[in-house]
């Protein structure tokens, strides 16, 4: 199965981030853990009921970090899919909650509602006919009939599309399906969650700078270790890129590389999933740590921001 596994972004205040994504957008809080490379920082995972690949938006909340700057070499926007008939509901919800958003627009024949989170992260809802028939998670506030169904895709802002496109096509199985102005659309076969990557060619634009409100990396799916290994070999042999060694993230296994346009890409396995260390019904309730950090639990918990009883 091809497509996006997850998107990881940078937030500021942890509690504000949690409130927005679980309460305002109605996503499930799938996992509360830490950044394995920086255990003084939370790593929040939001998604559908079980955190299926293609639904997972994650955050590193770095309180006090400088704001990012959108530009070339960055992810320009992350888009979710919702039922087409639900866009009116979401416009009304954004107005009622004071969530910054732009008017509905058309892209590639689809209705798109752009908006931002409290840190300025660029997001969008895309109306998909028939998405109401897909499984939905409800937080009890956003009705299941209007709930987010996972990712639609991402838009990359790049100086040039060619070399990045070659990686998407050769390694991840995407194909070019349309062009609209300066935007080239790539998609994987079938109507699956997270199957779209748009490349916005912006020659001469200012380069982006990562920080609060920007995407840290995009992860693409590999069914298992063997498929991930095959992808890594293609990156080296056909594209001259050098992915990292495999890193165990408990819920998937990952390799990372900087794609030719400058965006950090990850290849993450679908297995073992988020229920490996807690039951599905209680996902996200407890702080979960990898085995190598468990002996430091008391120290880690004392350094993390207090979320009270809400998370």
What does this structure look like?
The strands form two sheets. The protein has an eight-stranded mixed β-sheet. It has an eight-stranded mixed β-sheet with strand order 6-7-8-5-9-12-11-10. It is α+β, with helices and mostly antiparallel strands. The protein is globular and about 50 Å long. It has helices at 14-24, 87-97, 162-170, 225-239, 291-294, 297-303, and strands spanning 4-11, 28-35, 38-47, 56-61, 74-83, 105-107, 110-116, 122-128, 151-158, 175-180, 183-187, 196-201, 215-222, 247-248, 253-258, 264-269. The protein is built from six helices and 16 strands. A hairpin with a 2-residue loop joins strand 6 (105-107) and strand 7.
Taken from the alpha-carbon principal axes, the silhouette is: globular
Low-confidence residue ranges:
none
Which value, in Å, is the CA radius of gyration?
Answer: 18 Å
* Approximate strand percentage: 25-35%
H/E element sequence: EHEEEEHEEEEHEEEEHEEEHH
User: What portion of residues is helical?
Assistant: 10-25%
* Number of helices, counting only DSSP H or I runs of 4 residues or more: 6
Number of E-type strands:
16
What can be said about the biggest beta sheet? 8 strands, mixed
**Biggest sheet: strand arrangement:** 2-3-4-1-13-16-15-14
Give the mean pLDDT: 95
Determine the N-to-C terminus distance: 32 Å
**Class from helix and strand fractions:** alpha+beta
